[in-house]
Design a protein that fits this description.
215 residues, mainly beta, Jelly Rolls, nine-stranded antiparallel beta sheet
Amino acid sequence: MGFILINFGLPWWGSETVNFDSVKAGAPPPGWTIAVTHKGAPPRWMVHPDVTAPSGPNVLAQLSNDKTRFRFPLAIYDKVVCRDGDLIVKFKLIAGKIDQTAGLVWRYQDPNNYYLVHASANSKNIAVFKLKDGKSTAIAPLGADEKASSVPHEVEEQRWNTLRVVFRGARVSVYLNHRKLLDAQDSTFLVAGRTGVWTKSDTIAYFDDFRIDKK
C-alpha cells in the first residue's frame, strides 16, 4: 500500500488528505514528484519517522542542507489537478543556517512556473510569490503599503504550525495557525495545476497531514 488516502464523503475531486503513515520510512512517498527550482544539489525528500508528528508515526521530510541561495526543493502531489482549491498542511522547521523557510505550492505547471506561500522563521514574515519562467516575484498583500511585499509574523522553529492557502481565480487568502494573515491577487496562472510543498536553500523541514480540497 502507498500513502493513506482519506476521503471525507466527497467524490475524488473533493477532499483528499495524505498523512504518510502507511509508507515505509527512508524513501520518497509514491504519488509525489520530486523537483527543484534554480541551481543546487538535488533535494532529499523522504518519509521519515517523528514521534512529535500530528498524526504519527511518519512525516514527509526534506533533509538536504545544500546552502545554495534561492534553491527551492519541491515535493508535488500528482493525483489532484485543480484551478481553485483549499490547501492545508502542518509543518515544522527543523534547521537551516542560510534559511528556515517552507510553505505550500499551487497551480504548479513545472519547476519554473507556479505560486507559493513562504513562511519564514529567519525573515519573520509570510509572503506569496509567483515563479514565472524561474523568476520569483512577490505579490503584494491587498490593502498593505504599496512597497510591502510580505506580512511580518513570527514563525517558530521546532514547532508544528498549520499553514493554509485558499485560492479562487485571481484571489488568494493565507492563514497561519488558523489566523488569516493576508489576501493577495494575481492573474498570471489562471489554469489548473498540481499542489505540493517546498523549502528554501538549506532548510530542513517536516510536513504532515497534507490536504487539498478541490473546488
